[in-house]
Amino acid sequence: MIAQEQAILQHEKKYTSEERPTFWYDCTSRIIIFPDGDVKHIGTMPLTSVLGGIEKHMQRPDSEQKYGRHKAVNLFIRAGNLRKNKPNREYFNVGDGWIRDAYEYVDTLFAKYYRDGYRVYVYGTGKYFGEERDIIAIRKAWYTLQSQLDDAFHYPNFKLYTTPASTGRNLLRGSLPENVQYERLPDDILRAIYRDICYQSRIQHFPPKRPVLENGGYIIDGSWFYASFCLNDMPTGKPEHDTVNELATFPNGYRCPGFYYGTATVPLDRPKHIGLLKEWTECYRSDDESRYPNEPGETFKFRATNHEVFLAMVNGYHIVIEERYYFPHKQANPLYNWIRKLIDLREKASTGKGKNSLLKAAYRNIVLHTIGSFKQAYTWKNHTDITDDKFHKLEETGRIIEIYPRKKLGFISCVEELDLPGDRQKFVHPEIAAYIWGMARAKLAEFLLQNIPYEDVVFMSTDCVWAASVPDGVQKKGEWNKPGEFVVKDHIPGPWEVPTDSGKMRDYVIKYNVEHNKFDEIMHTDRYYYDEEEF
Amino acid sequence: MTGYRVIEAQREEVDPADLYALPTKEQHKDGSYSVNVPVENMDRAVREIENGGPDFRVHVYATNEEGERYPVFINEGRDNGIGADGLAEMLSTSELSDLIEANTYGKVSSDELAFIQLEFRPEHHRE
């Protein structure tokens, strides 16, 4: 049970906690950068030796003088999010008395090691800086980022946190409107939104209507899409829950933020289109099998935000709302001050003398990961290959949410669900993440519906569409475009043989992004953005 | 990260000989249970899936002869696994080994399948 006072998000004083000394290491170039900026090349060595070397270095009398006495350090390892750009999983296995007591490899790279009371926290650089390979440039960008945020947020002695989400949250707490309290949702509503409606962006391939596009294809992108939605009203204030069959409004008649469950029927008289609401099903569905029904007359269940439901209604869908959660008691937008500053900073990193692709990526990641982290309502602890005795004790006392199949008799691995630490409770707002993701789905769908013939749509991916034509008035992408504006990012020269299924399309997009150095756009689903923890 | 990459990243190395020593069925205190069967006993796996019914979600893991184990049904971040009744329905028209091959993108092909592990967890239906 979470105490209510722990769970109120409100303006707080800016404070700076002491930073752990930070090392930077690239195991490909074998460059290590010490906390004072000293750069050294070292021989090929396993992580065990790197950890040992760091410990030894920090215990030297001159190091203690320089950095103070510390029992823990950070080690950033140069690692992108693509597997080929990060050390393999086995690299993080250690020996020589070091013990690893936390390890994440798939969606995020993080590990915690200790030996005789000395700790090393290992992070990948990908969460901030994507696939960048130059560890010296990464470190430089890190400290530039710190200084720019310090200036923009008037945050004296600001220190970056080790994940973009925690940095974003720390900046947010000092940017919230004063004298406004944002309460955590009641448990039942929180669970319902978390489980049923906080789902990923729309990634969908449309079977080609023409196998070859003679004039090629166009990639049309919504500029800094999610940031633009942070400027809108958010679901705030006490939520209401009922079964009234209509879209909820404020007293002034404007639609208020809300989440809806119901039944939809695709209009019989509507020409073939992309489909506007995702079908809800409790059965299995993989990434590629999300359905947005578009056959005239088809009836299906949906879970969606007010923007999506409204879009469907005005396009002739018959909607029966069976349940709704809505937010009629509006409070000031908690994200407004925060996002305005981050938009300014990203504009500076995109144009003129301040142009810096690493800073651009970092600002993008701070925004996306912070939004994603609102979804996180619980945290999870992996128990790997524990003995049956330990497992049975955990069964008695803990909340086990997943048990992995055994590898051998007598040992088992499982995942325990834990409440987030007190300071994170106030940021448990899955309704904010769900709402922003829903706005993104609705806006992309609306753009397509109004501007691009169905026959020309090839692929939708979160904030981007691949199509055979470009609508009038959509400009070429500039150095900087207004957040939310649609622009042509690229043209694939013709003749272009359109990938025939979603798997081939996914491979094509990944290959295309890698070849064009678009490393910050590698088809991450939202899972990538919310599944992380600060330690 | 798409299903293919999630599966690829979750590859684990196991010793098939160790798997053969596991109990066929194991009950846990939270109502979940595990089933471990070698490919020679695939009928048992199918029977267990059919018996699971609508109130269980099953997480399927497949190991090939090389000792590479992969999760088979990766959902869209909401809740991994697949409803046991849904999988049973799929089994009325497909072989389990073919479903495993398709859903591991060929990592565990039907002729190299060595061991199947099923983790049944109570399904959380919306009330």
Question: What would you note in describing this structure?
Answer:
The complex is a heterodimer of chains A (535) and B (127). Chain A is α+β, with helices and mostly antiparallel strands. Among the domains of chain A are: 4-13 and 139-184 and 334-369, no CATH class; 22-128 and 375-425, no CATH class; 238-324. Chain A has 15 helices and 24 strands. In chain A, the strands form six sheets. In chain A, strands 4-3-2-5-8-7-6 form a seven-stranded mixed β-sheet, with helices on both faces. Chain A has a six-stranded mixed β-sheet with strand order 10-20-21-12-23-22, with no helix packed on it. In chain A, β6 and β7 form a beta hairpin. Chain A is globular and about 80 Å long. Chain A starts with 7 loop residues before the first strand and ends in a 5-residue tail after the last helix. By secondary structure, chain B is an alpha+beta fold. Helix content of chain B is 31%, strand content 28%. Chain B has helices at residues 3-9, 16-20, 42-52, 84-91, 96-103; strands spanning 12-13, 25-27, 33-38, 56-64, 68-71, 82-83, 113-122. In chain B, strands 1, 2, 3, 4, 5, 6 and 7 form a seven-stranded antiparallel β-sheet that branches. Chains A and B meet through α11 and β18 of A and α1, β6 and β7 of B.
Features:
heterodimer; A: 535 residues; alpha+beta; seven-stranded mixed sheet; six-stranded mixed sheet; 31% helix; disordered C terminus; B: 127 residues; seven-stranded antiparallel sheet; 5 helices; 7 strands; globular
Topology (elements, then pairings):
The complex is a heterodimer of chains A (535) and B (127).
Chain A: E1 8-9, E2 22-26, E3 31-33, E4 39-41, H1 47-59, H2 61-67, E5 72-77, E6 99-104, E7 110-115, E8 118-124, H3 126-129, H4 135-152, H5 164-175, E9 182-183, H6 187-196, E10 203-205, E11 212-213, E12 217-222, H7 225-229, E13 240-242, E14 258-265, E15 299-305, H8 306-314, E16 318-326, H9 336-350, H10 357-373, E17 378-387, H11 388-397, E18 399-403, E19 411-419, H12 422-425, H13 430-451, E20 457-461, E21 464-467, E22 475-476, E23 486-492, E24 496-497, H14 502-515, H15 527-530
Parallel strand pairs in A: 2-5, 5-8, 22-23
Antiparallel strand pairs in A: 1-9, 2-3, 3-4, 6-7, 7-8, 10-20, 11-24, 12-21, 12-23, 13-16, 14-15, 14-16, 17-19, 18-19, 20-21
Helix pairs in contact in A: 5-10, 8-13, 9-10
Chain B: H1 3-9, E1 12-13, H2 16-20, E2 25-27, E3 33-38, H3 42-52, E4 56-64, E5 68-71, E6 82-83, H4 84-91, H5 96-103, E7 113-122
Antiparallel strand pairs in B: 1-5, 2-3, 3-7, 4-5, 4-6, 4-7
